[in-house]
Amino acid sequence: MTIFTKFLKVVFGVTFLLFATFSIAQNRPIEDGFDFRTLPVAQPIEAKGKIEVIEFFWYGCPHCHDFEPEFSAWVKRQGADVVVRKIPVAFRDDLLPHSQLFYALEALGRSDLHPKVMDAIHVGKKKMLSDVEIADWLATQGVDRQKFLSAFKSFTVISKARGTSQIAQNYRIDGVPTVAIQGKYITSPSIAGGSKTRAIDVMDYLVNKARKEKR
Do 70 and 22 reside in the same domain of the chain? Predict the structure, then answer.
C-alpha cells in the first residue's frame, strides 16, 4: 500500500465520519438548548392573536445574505396565522445607515428592494453606508432620490433604526441572522449546528409549538 493510498483512506474515513455525524445531528429530535434557546423573559409581540416571527439581520452580514433565499421561501409557506417581520441590527454606530436604509425603504413602500440591497452589497461590492451612495444606487432602481433622502434623514426612521439596539438586547441577540418565534424562542443556522436546513426545520417546529401553546 502506497503512502498516497493510505492518505486517501484517511481522507475518505474522515469525510465519512463527518458525514455520519452530520446525518445523526440532522435526524435527532429537536431540543431546547441545542437547536434553539428559550428566552428567560418572554418579549411582547406586536401581532396579537397571531404567531409572530422576527428575523434579526444586518445588510452587511454575509451569513444573512446566504440565508435570505431559504428564509424567503420559508416565509411563503407559512399560514395566515403567522406574521413575519424583519428587524435590522447595527452592532456599531457606523453601521446604523444600513438600518436607516431598511426603514426608509419601508416608509416608501419599497421593501421589495430588500434582497437587491443585499445583492448590491455582497455581489456588487457596494458599502451602502453613505446617504449619497445609497441614493445614487436607489435611483437606478426607480426610487426618487429626494424622497429617499427625506425619509432616510427623518426623525421617525432614525428613531426606529436606533431603537432596534434595545430590542436586540432584550432578545439577547449576539449574532445574525437570528430568528425569534412568538417572543419566546430564538434559533439560527449557527445555533442549529451550522445548518440552514436544520434551522428551517427548527423554525417549523417552533411555529407549531407556538401554535399549540395558543390553544
Answer: no
Number of domains, the chain: 2
Name the nearest CA neighbour of 54 among 178, 197, 210.
Answer: 178
**Domain with 133 in it:** 32-214
Strand order in the sheet with 185-187: 37-38, 185-187, 178-181, 51-57, 82-88
112: part of which helix (H) or strand (E)?
none
Are 74 and 181 spatial neighbours (Cβ–Cβ below 8 Å)?
Answer: no
Residue 183's closest CA among 160, 167, 205, 159?
A: 167
Query: Maximum Cα–Cα distance for the chain, whole Å?
Result: 73
The CB density around residue 187, as the number of other CB atoms within 10 Å, is 24
Q: What type of residue is 23?
A: S
Instruction: For residue range 25-65, list pLDDT tens digits in order.
Output: 557 899 999 999 999 999 999 988 999 999 999 999 999 99
Q: Is the pTM of this model over 0.90?
A: no
Are 150 and 194 within one domain? Answer: yes
Q: Which grid coordinates are listed for 170?
A: 432584550
The full DSSP string for 118-185 is HHHHHTS-----SHHHHHHHHHTTT--HHHHHHHHTSHHHHHHHHHHHHHHHHTT--SSSEEEETTTE
